[in-house]
Write a structure and sequence with these properties.
five-stranded parallel sheet, 8 helices, alpha/beta, 11 strands, 321 residues
């Protein structure tokens, strides 16, 4: 992007996408730099390279925060002007490739625009993507479910943020942590407003996430109860060898007189014996220290979830591991 009230734009007004004779549409006081131009590509790479080199930058987020408007490239001529769509993307890819080559330890995050810009070309080049500006935990259950049908949890940035969120909903801190743990966990709260209890819970949640991160990010996902179909949401991740599994369960609201449904797990070794480690032991309705894979898949787990936005998690590890 480029602000029209900037030295760059005053020096190079032709660097912004434009159709001659048409007003240039601003959003956030910005126009769009035409990355299809090689001079714009070179300027952008040089600026980012200088920024990273001189400031020892370890993390770069390439945000994408407005729609295209007036996508013209008059200098290319009528026969080539439509190439703006292809050349733009290829030049962005080249910038990232060159940054990667020169700064191999640099972590780069792309922005998805609700998943709409998470193409395979960008996924070859970045470490993760920003899933959505909507970080509200209950909404994220549906957003993350949809995202997971196309992309792995490892690239899905999922942040714990403050409440009430923009939609006015307030959910418990543990609920927000557990939702975010189903992707690449980040914390975006105002920590100056946390209580001692919040920090204690966060320490516990981060330690738990570190113990299950590999299972979530590299394992298989089973969607046992969808947030689109009822009050209960349950996702299960299973390690590639089937020896570890982690279950996340979320209740939107308690239905009067209705017990929580039994959760029958999947992807386990039926003959294997698993240690059952509940994040919240009091929420395991049937106290179990160990159970066979056959029991967990056929009889299942019963969790005691009650009240609005209750949540918990259970870690299973095959005995002898």
């Amino acid at each position: 992007m480029v602000n029209p009230d900037s030295d760059l734009y005053r020096k190079h007004p032709d660097w912004a996408m434009n159709f001659p004779g048409r007003p240039r549409t601003e959003a956030r006081n910005q126009l769009i730099l035409n990355m299809a131009r090689d001079d714009v590509k070179e300027y952008t790479f040089a600026w980012l390279d200088k920024l990273v080199s001189e400031n020892n930058v370890a993390f770069l987020k390439w945000d994408m925060n407005r729609n295209f408007s007036e996508p013209g490239w008059p200098e290319a001529g009528p026969a080539n002007e439509k190439m703006i769509w292809v050349k733009y993307a290829n030049n962005v890819y080249e910038i990232i490739d060159r940054l990667r080559a020169k700064h191999p330890m640099l972590e780069i995050e792309s922005c998805s625009g609700g998943g709409g810009r998470v193409d395979l070309g960008i996924l070859k080049r970045v470490d993760e993507v920003w899933t959505s500006d909507n970080t509200e935990a209950f909404d994220r259950l549906r957003i993350q479910e949809g995202f997971s049908y196309a992309y792995p949890a490892q690239v899905m940035m999922a942040w714990v943020t403050d409440v009430p969120n923009f939609n006015g909903r307030t959910t418990p801190l543990q609920y927000r942590f557990l939702v975010a743990m189903m992707g690449s966990l980040g914390i975006g709260n105002n920590l100056t407003k946390w209580t001692d209890e919040d920090f204690a819970l966060a320490n516990r949640m981060v330690a738990y996430y570190k113990s299950i991160r590999r299972i979530v990010q590299q394992g298989k996902l089973y969607r046992l109860f969808s947030p689109r179909e009822g009050e209960l949401t349950v996702n299960q991740f299973v390690s590639e060898d089937g020896r570890q599994s982690v279950v996340f369960a979320f209740l939107r609201s308690q239905q009067y007189g209705r017990p929580n449904p039994t959760i029958r797990l999947r992807g386990l070794d039926e003959r294997g014996v698993y240690r059952v480690r509940a994040l919240d032991p009091n929420q395991l309705a049937d106290p179990l220290d160990t159970a066979s894979g056959a029991y967990l898949q056929n009889h299942g787990l019963n969790l005691h979830l009650a009240g609005d936005y209750d949540s918990t998690s259970v870690l299973l590890e095959q005995a002898g591991q």
